[in-house]
Sequence to fold (290 residues):
Amino acid sequence: MSVTTSESPQEKAYESSRLELNSSLIIGGTLISIVLVIALVSFFWTPYDPNDMGEGIRLGAPSMQHWIGTDKLGRDLFTQLMIGARLAFVVAIGSTSIAAFIGISLGLLAASTRNRYIDEAFSYFFDVLIAFPTILMAMLVVTIRDASISSAILAIGFSASAIVSRLSRISATSILKTDYVKAAIACGTSRPAIIFRHVLPNIYPILVVQLMLVASSAILAEASLAYLGLGAPPPQASWGRMLLEAQRSVMRAPWGAIVPGVMIIAIVMGLNFLGDGIREHFDPEMRNKN
Fold:
């Protein structure tokens, strides 16, 4: 005798969530892995030297010698694309690291302070930074320093730190108001111990997702800065500058603009999918709901 069982709505919802989780991680991980492999390979091998004019064929069509064609100076576009992938990861990692260090530190400091006026001062400071456009921040940093990749990373990281700070402060404040944290404080547990034992383990899924968004925003911001001439100067290859250089010849050689645009879209979508998958997998509240 065979026994048939029917799934409850909760079990069906769990299965749906699990499939969605797997698809998010797979799509995001695949897109990021492809771009990451291209970036890593560029450290050891490229089809041509980044500044090699080759045979002097300008705006050449894709061929066996030049897989996605050449630019207006006769340089191999696939080589430029590989160097641009490396630069994109450098910007994403550098900017996200700065935003995480400054943002989480200030956010936790604001949440753990016992002085209401200091907490409000931090809150107003975060709001001012959030309202300050990244492009203007980059112009300010470039004026103080110079137009370079390090200046772009500093500007993007410092601008993004405001959002991370605000999210850290709000999330940490809600955890500090819970009964078990109040009980730990009453037992004499120090503030640093509470932060590392109770606060960070409960807010890190939210922070991971936000930092993924920061990384994708950093890549978009760097491409915009390079397009405006505020990013990495030549001869450093950048997807944003590739778009700028292909602008005047887009009707004659559209591949020069299409390929870097597709790469920007791919890595940004990959980071967003990866962030969603990580949030669904590690967020304790979502696990409890399931």
In short: Residues 1-20 have pLDDT under 50 and may be disordered. DSSP finds ten helices and no strands in the chain. The chain has one domain: 13-289. Residues 191-228 form the longest helix (38 residues).
